[in-house]
User: Which sequence fits this backbone?
């Protein structure tokens, strides 16, 4: 079976730095971006199975990124991570098609579980 | 007192009178609430040190901001209550907030004080003052059962003095600028700075202090006293990232200690170090170089231990190499040595050994020159199996602490005693690491005992025989390397944590005190599993995966290696380091004694100190609003009606007294709704606790005259002349100037154990100081048995219990209640020393209070 691909976008490098090895240990192929412009460039080339994105960012923010992903890769699933106190925008993200949202700071296990569920659904979308 | 002050005091007093009593208490309640909120925030931040959370800079900035707001609000309330008596606290808050801001921005705040620190004088959080090598050594020094040679560090202050004395700051800075702009090559800049440093003079104070410290270690005999002199870098995790970049010197004679200091300083600017800083963009940090001095051990045998075989890291073996004499031949690989492969598992048997034909050795003392090994020793192993085992055991304790395979330099002296000289991470090629997909195949073959139960308090993997520890166990018998399994997470377990390979509890939180200690000693920990003590069998071999939250049966070497060979632990991320630094200015409590001279706004070193200070001063101010029962009764206080002859006035902060009693001036014990007060009262009024015999002296008279004088002596005027209980639904503060002594109890009871505490203070008595001190130590015995941390100072007893489950706190409050009655008996009935013993025995033998689950 083809490896499941995961894209992480967060302008705080710590998020990708810590999640990448964890998700790789789970058998995913992971790419990390810290600015939305380069993530969007990559999006032009390929659809990842699962996207993890922060909401608040310079340039195109997480909401904008989510819209672009849904437009270009309708079968992919998006997990939104948000800082404390931005639950309102999390709700908006869900309406716009995000699969799940997780508030920062989060336990690594939460993300692993969310990605596992999102992967299953993404695979179903394709099938 | 100056007339102005008198006037101020008078006006201040009048000013306070005008504030309604209810308003004062509302403010006090606010302070308590905000303190609780702040403590929760601190616990939350501390919990993030466990590595299971991903947090970013924003989390850190937001948390510090919230804390500052809470503390500022409390400072405002305190000044409201006290009519602006503590305006200086604002300066302290701002100063601390400023320091935190700098830490958050990634710069260093260095608070240097002394020039020289002995290794055992280095406190938590001093890595920037003494450098990482010295700091790590000082942390290892605290590990049980391992000996290190004596040593001291010429701290960052020495470095700065040296540069200043020789006028080098600006010269070096401008040379480095030319290097950064690539106007000059790294070699030419390095050489130029090196020459300037080597040509400088050591300032007289630094010279004197280094030689004094060295002289002390040599015990005055400088002839034949040798040192190793090493760099101890500052910034980042120096030990990890700058490894090998700076110079070290072995076998340095006393007369060369000062020139070695200069040589080590110069190595801060060697080409490798400068290039590394440029590459890692580390020039925005200050460059500084503390210097570590350690006594050389006159060794019979010395060498190196690799806790893993770098070429075969998946084998559960250590490599031990050694030779006769000093270890340098082994380190530098200059001559034939003995090599032993030793099992990582107990009892650490030697699985293979290659005995070299050891022709050369370094003479242990004086010259340190190479000399021929005597014929009969050449082909003889330089270590016995028992010695090999001892070295491996020590190495594995260190490995558990650093969570990395280590390269350990060791030495056995003539008497066969083991000394650890250095420990540093062992480089192992990442390709050698077992990958997760392979690993999951391995893991499938092992039975899962527990999965996703409880919370990870500290990430990591640990394995060993499960050791169930119960409340009454003798903790000194806990075998090193075992997995500590306990129903609760009481603070007393702290003493064995460094020896545990992992910790599992049924009940407990990631923010509790024990979890904090586990993080400090880096022991993988899972708390709150609910059923671990039932599922795990005594001495069953288990592997605790506190990364995925799974406990397996058996010892899974592959999993242990997988973690050991992890490229970079979460501890080295910038966010984690910043959190660790800021917590040091937030979480510790240094101001524990309200009577200490540093119990002032200026004496506060952390946010916790400030909170403690505000709480105490606010409470004292409330007590001073009345000096007799009537003053409190008039303003809403209620007199407690009971069989016990104690004139107690109760003040309700809200929820402490039944609503039905709202209009009454007297309340009965069953109308108390404050949970902690109920427990204390149950203890105080339990049969046999309160002596009902007629009191042989005028009790009231004693209280009004003697007590007040006495309490103002010992409490700095903070106690009222009345027995006063301030109650909340889950809070109590009881001040009892009973008889000739005083007792202060404060307690909070809530659903979260980490917010629960009891503090108990007691002093005074009618007898001479010897007997009072004796009684204090008897109280200490009783309280320590119950799990309190107790300080005795003369006749003053300060006890504190934290992190208590609901059952424990109720039991302890009951005990405190009995203790109050007991101490009063001592006062009234005490006739001679024998009586003290008798009453103590009586107290201890009285039935244990009924357990309430």
Assistant:
């Amino acid at each position: 079976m083809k490896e499941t691909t995961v894209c992480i976008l967060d302008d705080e490098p710590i998020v990708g730095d810590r999640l990448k090895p964890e998700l790789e240990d789970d058998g995913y192929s992971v790419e990390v971006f810290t600015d939305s412009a380069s993530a969007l460039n990559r999006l032009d080339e390929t659809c990842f199975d699962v996207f993890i994105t922060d909401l608040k960012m310079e340039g195109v923010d997480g909401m904008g990124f989510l819209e672009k992903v849904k437009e270009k890769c309708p079968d992919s699933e998006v997990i939104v991570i948000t800082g404390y106190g931005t639950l309102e925008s999390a709700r908006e993200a869900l309406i716009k098609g995000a699969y799940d949202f997780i508030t920062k700071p989060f336990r690594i296990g939460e993300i692993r579980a969310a990605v596992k569920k999102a992967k299953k659904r993404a695979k179903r979308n394709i099938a | 007192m100056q007339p102005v002050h008198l006037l101020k005091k008078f006006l201040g007093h009048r000013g306070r009178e005008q504030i309604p009593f209810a308003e004062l208490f509302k403010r006090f309640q606010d302070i308590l609430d905000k303190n609780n909120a702040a403590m929760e925030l601190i616990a939350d931040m501390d919990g993030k040190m466990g590595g299971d959370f991903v947090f970013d800079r924003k989390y850190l900035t937001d948390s510090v901001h919230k804390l500052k707001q809470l503390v500022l609000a409390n400072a405002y309330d305190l000044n409201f209550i006290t009519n602006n008596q503590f305006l200086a606290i604002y300066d302290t808050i701002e100063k601390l907030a400023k320091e935190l801001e700098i830490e958050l921005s990634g710069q260093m705040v260095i608070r240097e004080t002394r020039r020289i620190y002995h290794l055992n004088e280095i406190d938590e959080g001093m890595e920037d003052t003494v450098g990482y090598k010295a700091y790590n050594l000082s942390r290892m020094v605290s590990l049980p059962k391992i000996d290190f040679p004596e040593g001291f560090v010429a701290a960052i202050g020495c470095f700065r003095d040296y540069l200043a004395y020789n006028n080098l700051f600006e010269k070096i800075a401008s040379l480095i600028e030319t290097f950064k702009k690539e106007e000059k090559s790294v070699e030419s800049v390095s050489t130029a700075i090196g020459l300037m440093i080597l040509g400088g003079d050591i300032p007289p104070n630094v010279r004197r202090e280094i030689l004094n410290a060295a002289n002390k270690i040599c015990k005055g005999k400088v002839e034949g006293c040798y040192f190793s002199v090493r760099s101890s870098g500052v910034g980042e995790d120096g030990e990890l990232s700058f490894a090998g970049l700076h110079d070290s010197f072995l076998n340095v004679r006393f007369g060369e200690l000062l020139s070695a200091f200069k040589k080590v300083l110069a190595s801060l600017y060697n080409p490798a170090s400068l290039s590394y800083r440029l590459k890692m963009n580390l020039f925005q940090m200050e460059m500084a170089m503390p210097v570590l001095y350690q006594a050389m051990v006159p060794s019979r045998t010395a060498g190196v231990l690799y806790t893993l075989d770098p070429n075969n890291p998946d084998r559960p073996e250590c490599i031990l190499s050694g030779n006769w004499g000093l270890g340098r031949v082994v380190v530098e690989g200059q001559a034939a040595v003995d090599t032993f492969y030793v099992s990582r598992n107990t009892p650490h048997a030697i699985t293979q050994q290659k005995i070299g034909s050891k022709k050369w050795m370094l003479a242990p003392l004086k010259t340190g020159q190479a000399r021929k090994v005597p014929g009969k020793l050449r082909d003889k192993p330089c270590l016995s199996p028992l010695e090999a085992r001892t070295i491996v055991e020590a190495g594995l304790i260190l490995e558990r602490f650093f969570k990395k395979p280590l390269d350990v330099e060791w030495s056995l002296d003539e008497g066969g005693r083991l000394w650890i000289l250095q420990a540093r991470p062992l480089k192992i090629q990442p390709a050698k690491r077992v990958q997760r997909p392979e690993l999951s195949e391995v893991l499938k073959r092992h039975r899962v005992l527990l999965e996703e139960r409880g919370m990870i308090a500290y990430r990591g993997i640990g394995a060993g025989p499960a050791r169930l520890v119960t409340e009454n166990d003798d903790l000194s018998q806990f075998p090193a390397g075992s997995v500590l399994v306990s129903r609760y997470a009481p603070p007393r377990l702290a003493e064995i944590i460094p020896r545990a390979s992992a910790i599992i509890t049924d009940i407990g939180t990631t923010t509790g005190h024990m979890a904090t200690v586990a993080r400090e000693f880096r022991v993988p920990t899972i708390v709150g599993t609910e059923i671990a003590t039932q599922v795990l069998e005594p001495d069953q071999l288990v592997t605790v995966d506190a990364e995925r939250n799974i406990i397996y049966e058996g010892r899974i070497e592959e999993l242990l290696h997988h973690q050991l060979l992890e490229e970079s632990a979460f501890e080295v991320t910038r966010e984690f380091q910043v959190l660790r630094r800021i917590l040091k200015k937030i979480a510790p409590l240094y101001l524990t004694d309200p009577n200490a001279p540093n119990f002032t706004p200026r004496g506060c070193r952390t946010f916790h100190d400030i909170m403690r200070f505000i709480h105490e001063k606010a409470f004292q101010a409330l007590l001073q609003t009345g000096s007799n029962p009537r003053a409190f009764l008039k303003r809403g206080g209620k007199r407690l009606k009971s069989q016990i002859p104690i004139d107690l006035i109760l003040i309700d902060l809200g929820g402490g007294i039944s609503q039905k009693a709202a209009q009454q001036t007297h309340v009965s014990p069953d109308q108390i709704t404050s949970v902690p007060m109920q427990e204390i009262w149950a203890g105080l009024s339990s049969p046999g606790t309160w002596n009902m015999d007629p009191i042989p002296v005028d009790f009231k008279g004693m209280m009004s005259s003697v007590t007040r004088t006495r309490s103002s002596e010992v409490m700095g005027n903070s106690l009222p002349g009345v027995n006063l209980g301030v109650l909340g639904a889950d809070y109590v503060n009881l001040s009892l100037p009973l008889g000739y002594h005083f007792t202060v109890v404060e307690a909070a009871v809530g659903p979260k154990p980490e917010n629960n505490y009891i503090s108990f203070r007691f002093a005074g008595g009618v007898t001479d100081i010897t007997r009072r001190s004796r009684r204090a130590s008897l109280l200490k015995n009783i309280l320590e048995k119950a799990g309190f941390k107790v300080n005795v100072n003369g006749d003053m007893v300060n006890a504190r219990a934290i992190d208590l489950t609901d059952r424990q706190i109720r039991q302890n409050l009951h005990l405190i209640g009995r203790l109050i009655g007991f101490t009063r008996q001592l006062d009234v009935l005490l006739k001679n020393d024998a009586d003290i013993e008798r009453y103590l025995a009586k107290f201890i033998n009285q039935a244990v209070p009924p357990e309430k689950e």
In short: The radius of gyration of chain A is 13 Å. The first helix of chain A runs from residue 13 to 25. The mean pLDDT of chain A is 89. Chain A touches chain B through 21 residues (CB under 8 Å).
